[in-house]
Amino acid sequence: MISEEMNGINEKIRVLEQRKKALEYKLTNEGRKERTRRLIQKGALLEKYLNIEELTVEETEIVLKVVANFKNKNTDYFENQIRRFHE
């Protein structure tokens, strides 16, 4: 009787552990899909506004470093421009 009850509890534990793994996988997969979508959108915006379609990945990285350097040296200008676009 007790061993049957233990078997039943062990089976429930096994089922719950499988369900937990499935939910963890789903959560991880959803996060990965969201990140992939965001990266694609941002990449498309970079190509659109910086005309970098013909550049290699390495050349694109150099362009982004130049832009980041300019932004970091001109933070006030960038913040004002962003505010203007939000108005």
From TrEMBL:
It comes from the Bacteria. This is DUF3847 domain-containing protein. It comes from Fictibacillus terranigra. The lineage of its organism: Bacteria, Bacillati, Bacillota, Bacilli, Bacillales.
